[in-house]
Design brief:
heterodimer; A: 119 residues; 4-stranded antiparallel β-sheet; B: 6-stranded mixed β-sheet; 5-stranded antiparallel β-sheet; 0% helix; globular
Chain lengths: 119, 113
Amino acid sequence: DTGVSQNPRHKITKRGQNVTFRCDPISEHNRLYWYRQTLGQGPEFLTYFQNEAQLEKSRLLSDRFSAERPKGSFSTLEIQRTEQGDSAMYLCASSPPGLAGATPTDTQYFGPGTRLTVL
Amino acid sequence: QKEVEQDPGPLSVPEGAIVSLNCTYSNSAFQYFMWYRQYSRKGPELLMYTYSSGNKEDGRFTAQVDKSSKYISLFIRDSQPSDSATYLCAMSVRIQGAQKLVFGQGTRLTINP
């Protein structure tokens, strides 16, 4: 399967614990995005990487959230001191390099998500 | 007020019906307009995108954008039970070297055989 993969698919944790999710983008996709989707809502943008550089962060990304993409390939999203309000589906997407000097279509290919439940 | 408004439904129609899904938006800076389909426990998958006012057709699907009214629609002809899913409209805003997607709430659609 050459699509975006995310692990784990499900995570149940107790309030106050730290959790880490992993995203493996489609090979050769240099742009990677994290979104959060709560029940009955559309996904909300969290952050964006171009290669290893984190270029955009949403106000939704509090100090307890940190994302990395150390080698420009896979990415991790860590939530420290989880709260019940963090319960959601965390989606990762990737897109291929854009054309220099042009506005890219930027089709984003989503992974299956990691469903987090905080008890 | 949300930047993108979408009726969450649910919407239930018989097989073969024409389905109309709609979104309104408030941000004139949106560049691209997309429709994603999301099956239960799956990530969203892109159905259609457009960047200008007018219609775009792809098989049984037609996407319509009216920038003057800030209104987009997705029409599904000859609907099939396999079309049952949540449909998300999405609009993009340019960020450094990419586009950030702003989604509507999603409309849950059921096609009854």
